[in-house]
Amino acid sequence: MRTITTLLIFLLSITNNFGQTKYRSLQISNLTGDFYVFTSYNFYKGTPMPANGMYLVTNNGVVMFDSPWDTTQFQPLLDSIKSRHNKTVVLCIATHFHDDKTAGLEYYRKKGIKTYTTNQTDELSKTRAEFLIKNDTVIAVGQYSFQTYFPGAGHTADNIVLWFEKEQILYGGCLIKSTEDDDLGYLGDASIKDYATSIKNVQKKCKNLKFIVVGHGDWQSTKSLEHTLMMAKALENKN
């Protein structure tokens, strides 16, 4: 009996520790080549929710796309990147004004990392970047380049996507939903009437996609654009 009780306590301990690790730690996965997806967790309506970001390892340093949502993971992400790649982060760009994307901008700016948002995001965000992007533009770092693209309002009025045309990688942020999602998520700052059109604009610009990184949840499907468009059309028809 004593052995069984001890075993149960041990199993409960493992379960609790696993839950804490799952929802509070930083997860890093290789997307392809020099591209990596990082996931941190925070609570939404009392439920732990994953938020995805991405970073790119270049010859001239690491570029980060969005910051961790969990404020305790700002420095651990920098430390993990340094440990894995022996490189430092030189630039961070946020894709819209919500905290799950901009929370770390001030922290990283103080670390000497160049931080960027669009003018629209700067007007809405409580966390400011050092540099502003006025229009869609191509940014080159090391051997890589990518384009910032504002397809129109959707998840928010300021949401942009990042398009790596050569590698056929789309970093969609929260504008694009996971194929696991059954709705468009938080709509408090959304434009329901524009959402479907904005997704169509992304589809027109970004062809033959090999990878799509979404803002939350599973990012391993290339069907997330079509899935998001379907939900956006359905929501528009209801309104």
Question: What is the 3D shape?
Answer: globular
The total of helices stands at 7
Strand content: 25-35%
CATH topology: Metallo-beta-lactamase, Chain A
Low-confidence stretches: 1-22
What does this structure look like?
Helix content is 33%, strand content 29%. The chain is of the alpha/beta class and 239 residues long. A hairpin with a 2-residue loop joins strand 2 (35-44) and strand 3. It is globular, with a radius of gyration of 19 Å. The chain starts with a helix and ends with a helix.
In short:
With 239 residues, the protein is of the alpha/beta class. The chain has 7 helices and 12 strands. Strand 2 (35-44) and strand 3 (47-58) form a beta hairpin.
Write the layout of secondary structure elements.
Blueprint lengths: L1 H23 L2 E6 L2 E10 L2 E12 L2 E5 L8 H12 L3 E5 L5 H4 L2 H6 L3 E5 H6 L6 E3 L4 E4 L2 E6 L11 E4 L4 E5 L18 H14 L5 E4 L9 H15 L1
